[in-house]
Amino acid sequence: MSTDHVLGGVSQLEGNARKEALKLLDDTLAQLATNDGPSYKAVNVTSVTGQVVAGTLNTFEVELDDGSSKRQCTVKIWTRPWLKKDGTNITIKFAGEDGELDRTW
Fold it and tell me: Distance between CA 77 and CA 25 in Å, rounded?
């Protein structure tokens, strides 16, 4: 099985890449809580993928805990570190709900 990555393609993250993505998830959720967003903690990450786009797009299948309940959701974090403003975007879509939380800073 080839481990080559296709530019723009989605790949499952493993090893150090997965650890770095999980740290990004924790850091981004913490930043969301300090801005105008809700406070969530990732408690069970079932899948982490990465994709090189104009920046990096990480997608997490995760259970989030808001302190009173745990809910399954998809979290997408798009980072463009070269931008001084609006370089990070997070979207959170909870399973079974139509809307999604979408914040950029």
Answer: 8
